[in-house]
Every structure is written in C-alpha cells, then in structure tokens.
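Why do we care about 3D structure at all? Because function follows from shape, and shape follows, mostly, from sequence. That is the central idea of this module. The next example makes it concrete: a single protein chain, its amino acid sequence, and then its structure expressed as tokens.
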Amino acid sequence: QVQLVESGGGLVQAGGSLRLSCAASGRILSGYFMAWFRQAPGKEREFVAAISWSGGSISYSDSVKGRFTISRSTFKRTVYLQMNSLQPEDTAVYYCAAKVSSEAPFGSWGQGTQVTVSS
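And the structure:
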C-alpha cells in the first residue's frame, strides 16, 4: 500500500497559479500510475490528470488541458500538479491517488488539499 500526502493548496485570485505536491511513501513499482482528482462542493469527484510512474504516459481532462501540468520526481517520490490560469470553477478539494497499473482501480488516496479561487 502506498501512502500519499498532498500539500500546496490555498487561496488564489482568478488568473493566478498554484503548485500542488503529493509525497508518496511505501513501495512504488515502475508500473504505477499516479493521478489528481478534485471534488467541488455538491459535485462528484472528477479526474484531473494522470501520469505513469515511468513518465511515459500523461493524460488530462478537457477542463484543465493547456492550463495544468502534471509531473513527477522519482527521486523525491513526489507528484506535482502545476495549475495556471486558475478560475473560480477550479475551486475544489484536490486529491492525489495511485494505482498499481493502468488497468487497476485507484487503491490509494491522500487526504486532500483545498484550492479556492476567488473572482
């Protein structure tokens, strides 16, 4: 089981930027996939971005494509989400998640970090 701890959330004005971090501990194999999800008040959790631990596969939701960038440092065992051009609709709790392969369900989740974008 992988343990995940998010950080970097906060309050930012529309048009601003934030970088979220997800520190991972435990055994991480090369086939792992790491992802960011978010959940806004009254809405279901939605996929934001994912990256393979090898770095060879990256995907984004249409709502963040071109504004957010996911990356990882295998040395620091950390996954990042650089968020630019933030909008009020990006306000949500952001969660880091991990799964053992592309076909598996996400089995490890962090506690979440709040991102609030003011207009």
